[in-house]
Automatic annotation (TrEMBL):
It comes from the Bacteria. This is L,D-TPase catalytic domain-containing protein. GO terms for biological process: cell wall organization; peptidoglycan-protein cross-linking; regulation of cell shape. Pfam families: YkuD. InterPro entries: LD-transpeptidase, LD_TPept_cat_dom, Transpep_catalytic_dom. Belongs to the YkuD family. The keyword rRNA processing does not apply. Residues 83-220 form the L,D-TPase catalytic domain. Pathway: Cell wall biogenesis; peptidoglycan biosynthesis.
Length: 229
């Protein structure tokens, strides 16, 4: 990858948002109305199974994800330059700042209260299908769950980091926080992880190819002046 690559967000390169609609089916009796989301074709393609990977990347179950958190290009007001990642933990969005006041927006899951990272960091390096090792704090909090994994977990479809991970450092020191994938589709838009920033696997694969190492990352824990749609 060219480390000088700067993402240019264009309508030809991106799939633009389309709202979900609902289809209902009822009988003549007093049975409960059943509603089933109809997923637009462009989203089915965007979040379909990914071929060419060393491990399976299944299609995302979009019936478990609020459509507001699916990838799309949006207008975004920010003082940050093109190529910066801005993570709005309160809104549950990650923005990749583009040109002309636009950004590529991804839905995210964030850390539980008290476990979140905030401030500025750099993507020190990136990994495809990374190993995962729980932190000492995680092992101390839940030794029965994480103790057996103290030596690490091999890459694969069950690895919590998913198919890609961006490693965040601050002042040259590993923050132990990552931007990574997840197969737990239902967690997107929620605060459930141990502090890391998680995206659908298709989204982290997309983000991974757009950002080089040393990309600036701004993590906001609340409203900040100058940032917003």
């Amino acid at each position: 990858m060219d480390n000088h690559f700067v993402p240019k967000l264009t309508r030809r390169a991106l799939l633009i948002s389309t709202p979900f609609v609902l289809a209902g089916c009822t009988t003549a009796s007093r049975e409960t109305v059943v509603t089933k989301p109809i997923v637009p074709a462009e989203y089915l393609a965007m979040y379909d199974a990914v071929d060419g990977e060393p491990y399976p990347v299944d299609a995302a179950d979009l019936t478990r994800v609020d459509p507001a958190f699916l990838r799309r290009e949006v207008a975004y007001n920010t003082p940050e330059p093109t190529g910066t990642i801005v993570v709005d933990t309160q809104a549950r969005y990650l923005y990749l700042v583009g040109e002309n006041g636009m950004a590529l927006r991804y839905g995210i899951g964030v850390g539980k209260a008290g476990l979140e990272f905030s401030g500025e960091a750099l993507v020190q390096y990136k990994r495809q299908w990374p190993r995962w090792t729980p932190t000492q704090d995680m092992i101390a909090r839940e030794p029965e769950r994480y103790g057996p994994l103290a030596s690490g977990m091999e890459p694969g479809p069950l690895n919590p980091l998913g198919p890609r991970a961006l490693y965040l450092f601050k002042n040259g020191v590993d923050t132990l926080y990552r931007i990574h994938g997840t197969t737990e589709d239902w967690t997107i838009g929620k605060a459930v992880s141990s502090g890391c920033i998680r995206l659908l696997n298709q989204d982290i694969i997309d983000l991974y190819r757009r950002v080089p190492p040393k990309t600036r990352v701004i993590v906001l824990q609340g409203p900040a002046s100058g940032y917003g749609v």
